Every structure is written in structure tokens, then in C-alpha cells.
Amino acid sequence: MKVEENIILAELFDAYGVLLSEGQQKILSSYLYDDFTLSEIAENLSVSRQAVLDSVTKAEKKLFAFEEKLGFNKKIKALEKENENLLSQLKEIKSK
Question: pLDDT 10s per residue in the chain (96 long)?
């Protein structure tokens, strides 16, 4: 995966990770935050590399489906942008 894709996936995992199975949470957390390879995760969990890849792929699909249906991440980004705009306007007002 590319860095940009991992950042998006990590944002979605932060928003919706609790909706994944415990196993998917553990694997995705190791993959995204601990920067473990699929082989390292497989070895740590005593499963095949393919099982880890399948879990990551399924979790990724679920996270994108949650975002498509619920849109929390999109709303959070819109609120953050609005907050930045308001802070900028406030600084302008204070500088006058």
C-alpha cells in the first residue's frame, strides 16, 4: 500500500475500528500503527501470511463501506476545515 492509502485507512480505522472483529482490529493495528509486515503479523499470530492479507483486505473493505454509509470521517474533516476558517477569521479580527 502507498503511504497516502495507509493514512486514509488509519483515519477510517480510528473512526470505525471498534466495528471490526477483535482479530481484524489486532491485525490492522499491527499493520498500520506498529508498521509490521504481513509476514511478521502472521508469525506473531501463528497464522499464514495469506490469512493476514485476507483479514487486512476484508477489514479495509468494511471500513470504506462504513464511511460510505455513515460519512463520519468526511464530516470530521469538514468540521476541522470550518474550525480552521473560523480561527483564521478570529485572528483577522484580533489584528484589526
Answer: 588 899 999 999 999 999 999 999 999 999 999 999 999 999 999 999 999 999 999 999 999 999 999 999 999 999 999 999 999 999 988 887
Dihedral sign for Cα 61, 63, 64, 68, please: positive
- The reply to whether the predicted model has a pTM over 0.85 is no
Nearest to 73 by CA among 25, 29, 13: 13
Helices (H), the chain: 3-16, 22-32, 38-45, 49-70, 72-95
- How many residues are there in the chain? 96
Q: Say how many C-beta atoms besides its own lie within 10 A of residue 75's C-beta.
A: 11
Q: Would you tell me how many other CB atoms lie within 10 Å of the CB of residue 38?
A: 18
